[in-house]
Amino acid sequence: MNEIQAISKVLSPNDTGETGAHQAGMLIPKKGEILSFFPKLGIENKNPRSELDFYDETGKIWTFTFIYYNNKFFEGTRNEYRLTGMTSFIRKYGLKAGDTIILSRDSDGKMLIKQSSVAKGSTSGSVLKLGSSWKVVRI
Questions:
Q1: Cα–Cα distance list, 26 to 59, 80, 83, 100 (Å)
Q2: Among 39, 100, 128, 129, which is 20 to 30 Å from 11 by CA?
Q3: Is CATH 3.40.1550.10 what the domain over 6-138 is classified as, yes or no?
């Protein structure tokens, strides 16, 4: 299987903080191709995580945390993956529900992040819909 090089997500009101609810980052689907974009996290430890550095179009580094809330295996109830620590990025670019973020890797493995605002126009390229607001992008 080829490694996924780019994924996108249409932001929800929860992702952008528009609902006022406290969310621990964007929910990542547990199955399918989207999860394979991120590093593998095991269930041996409670809530394993990996810090990921993404570069925006200006070259600024944004550090997000990919976390597996797995306390279901430690007498809890949660069993979900999330990408957290994105609030500053979302606010800096004034992103709202309906806007899109694109996470990608260049040929050297450097992780990149881009945003596309509904007001600014949509992202070009062929997109494979996966039945959620997450998509695999062919760039």
A1: 23, 10, 5, 13
A2: 39
A3: no
